[in-house]
Amino acid sequence: MSGVMSVEVIATKIFEIRGKKVILDRDLSELYGVSTKVLNQAVKRNIKRFPGDFMFQLTELEKDKVVTICDHLISLKFSYQLPYAFTEQGVAMLSSILNSERAIAVNIQIKERPQIGFR
Questions:
Q1: What local confidence, expressed as pLDDT, does residue 1 receive?
Q2: How far is CA 95 from the centre of its chain?
Q3: Domain coordinates of the chain in residue numbers?
Q4: Which of 80, 28, 78 is nearest to 54 (CA)?
């Protein structure tokens, strides 16, 4: 699975927000090798596949809290866009709509490694 991030790196991208373990759209786009814009456009074209327990948009307060605790998201501080958060089910659905070899590999890595922290 060359090019896919290590288990340790993926685990650092999981946050607990609203009592759910999630990965933000920006981090998923990096994992999948697409821009955040492309990822979010694919989601919007397939929005019926992403109910509230698969994906939700952060509030301004939630965004500020995540930016405060995670250095790699500092660029979000000045973004007018509120990021989307994807649960494990949302991540699985993303791999089906992106339909790329890399998306499938990332999804398998997340699903097969409980140490990543989604569970």
A1: 42
A2: 11
A3: 7-116
A4: 28
Cβ(31)–Cβ(86) under 8 Å? no
Cα 90 versus chain centre, distance = 8
Query: pLDDT-based confidence at 26, cuts 50/70/90?
Result: very high
Q: State the helix-helix crossing angle for 101-112 and 88-98, rounded to 10 degrees.
A: 160
pTM: 0.84
Provide the 10 A C-beta neighbour count for residue 17. 17
State the residue for tokens 């327990």. Answer: 53
Distance CA 39, CA 96 (A): 12
CATH topology classification for 7-116: Mlu1-box Binding Protein; DNA-binding Domain (3.10.260)
Name 15's bridge partners: 22
Q: In what order do the strands lie in the sheet with 84-86?
A: 14-17, 20-24, 84-86, 55-57
Angle of helix 88-98 relative to helix 36-45, nearest 10 degrees, comes to 90
Sign of CA pseudo-dihedral 47, 4, 26, 116? positive
